[in-house]
Amino acid sequence: MSDELDSDLRDRISTVVKRAAFLGRLAEGPTSKRDLRDELGVSRSTVYKAVRELEDRGLVTETDEGVALTLVGRLLREECRTFEERVAAVLDGESLLSALPADVPVTTDLLVGAETVRGERHAPTGPVEHIDDFVRRTDRVVGFTPVVLPQYVDIFHEEVVGGDLTADLVLESPVVEYLRENHAERLSESLATGRLAVRRTDETLPFGLVVAEDEGLVLIVYDESGDLRGVLLNDTEAALDWGREMFRTYWERAGDESD
C-alpha cells in the first residue's frame, strides 16, 4: 500500500470514528440537518461541517428525505460498530485478561457477549459457584485445567458417579498425580463409570476451560501462583466455536490417562 493510499485510509477511518454519532443516527434513516442538530445536541455549524466531511468521503448524500447514508457509509458504520463492540468487550474483561500472558490464544470471539465474574474479598468463592452451577446444568462437558481445587473434585465426582454427566478432560501432569495421590478412590470410581475420560499433558495450560454444547463455556483464569482470579462465561456461537477448537487442540496433543 502506497503512502498516499495509506494516508487516505487513515483519514477515512478517522472520519468514521470522529463522526460515529452522525453515522449512527443516519443508520436509522434519512433525516434533516435540523433534526441532526436537535437529536445529537450539537451546533448548526458542527452539523454542516460533519455532513460536508462525510459527503466529501462518499459516506452520506443529500436526498429529498434529507441526509442519508450511502452504501459505503452504511458498511463502514457497521464495521465501526463491530469495532466498538469488540473494544468494549476487551475492556470489560480487562481485569481478568491482565492476569494472562500476552501470547495466550484468546480472541475477541470469546469476549463479545461475555459475563465476567471475579473473586472478591467479601465473596471469594463466587467464580467457583458459577463453575459448579454451569457443570450441574448439563449432561456433557469437555475441558481442561492447569489447577485442581477441592470443589472441582466434588463437582465432577458427584455428577459423573451420582448423576449422568459425561466429561472429557485434559489435565496437566501434576494435576493427575495430585488426584492419584489424594483422591485416588474418587478418581477410580469416576473413570470406572465410562463417563469420564482423562488425558494428561506436559504442556502448561494457560487457563481452565469448560465447554458444554447446550450451555456455552466458562473460561477460568488463575494467577501465576495458581490462585483463582475469576471466570468468564459466554454462550454465543462464536465463543463456542473458539472453545471447541481450543479443547480439540489440547485433547489431540495429550496422552491417555483413563486406566
TrEMBL record:
InterPro entries: ArsR-like_HTH, FilR1_middle_dom, HVO_A0261-like_N, Tscrpt_reg_HTH_GntR, WH-like_DNA-bd_sf, WH_DNA-bd_sf. Residues 124-253 form the Methanogenesis regulatory protein FilR1 middle domain. The keyword Zinc does not apply. One of its GO terms (molecular function) is DNA-binding transcription factor activity. The keyword Transcription regulation applies. Pfam families: FilR1_middle, HVO_A0261_N. Residues 14-89 form the HVO-A0261-like N-terminal domain. Keywords: DNA-binding, Transcription, Transcription regulation. This is DUF1724 domain-containing protein. It comes from Halorussus gelatinilyticus.
